[in-house]
Amino acid sequence: MRGGRHGAGPRDGAFAQPAVSPARARAQYSLPWTMRPAVAPTLARLDSSMSFSTPGFTAVTLLTGGYAFVPGTLGLYGRAGVVHQTPATGAAATVVSNPIVFGLYTPLVAPGWRLTVFAGVALPVGGGGGDSADPNSLRTVRSGIPARSAMDNALFAVNYITPTAGVGAAFIRYGLTAQAEVTVLQLIRVRGESRDADAMRTNFTAGLHLGYLLLPWLTASAEFHYQHWLHNPSLDPSATAPAGKPRGQATVELGVRANLPLSDTVLARPGISFGLPLGGPMDTDAYRILHLDLPVVF
């Protein structure tokens, strides 16, 4: 009989759900836009942030790659990029950013919960650094800071070596991702004394990401960022400095991401987002940021 001998019922597993491939399982996590991942992946990622503002147009294109020695838990990564600026006045220029090398430790600490630990160092070899560098090159590489929502400052501080460390947590379950992080960057000047007055600077960044898997192939998300200079003597000790440079800047980013399995284990996650400042100098300069992202997770 169909139910098995003596009509005892279906065989074990007859009603079992089909196994979810590793690629589909990865789609349950909403990959952030500018924040770091909360699940250490093996990945290759190309993304470009394009800012439109009163100072002009800036495009920052970054390449990130890395390997997870313990899949989902421990990985080592590198990132570097190119900054192009067409200013409202003056000559356009294209400059290479500092590279950064960093590690991620993202253990599962409870059902649905991950701890995120980050440590890295940005190396002061980007274009526009030093006392004799072309001023247009230095202006161009610095324009990458607001174009990346002031969250990747170490890449664009080309006169500083920047050790950085951070911690965070993420809840990932039922297609929902809620992730938070904080990071401290310690900038140490190694060149360009005539261009950067501060021998030491300390920067703080924080982020909150909320994402939801609307469909197996589509994720929607929102991301909030905040950065604050804890120590930067060249800024006025009060809340704002001359030339309208407050110590803090907040931004928000809204976007959608596709989840496209290329195989059972490889997932392409192309996405597009739009960023806006929440007050601060970026609001004064009418920044609008379009972010195109193409990560491939293995």
3D architecture notes:
With 298 residues, the chain is mostly beta strands. It has a single domain (36-297), classed as monomeric porin ompg (Porin, Beta Barrel). 7% of the residues lie in helices and 51% in strands. The chain has helices spanning 22-26, 135-142, 144-147, 280-284, and strands spanning 43-53, 56-70, 74-87, 93-96, 100-105, 108-110, 113-122, 160-173, 176-189, 200-215, 218-231, 248-258, 260-261, 267-268, 271-277, 288-297. A twelve-stranded antiparallel barrel has the order 1-2-3-5-7-8-9-10-11-12-15-16. Strand 10 and strand 11 form a beta hairpin. The radius of gyration is 22 Å and the shape is globular. Residues 1-17 and 238-244 have low confidence and may be disordered.
Defining traits:
4 helices; twelve-stranded antiparallel β-barrel; 51% strand; Porin; 298 residues
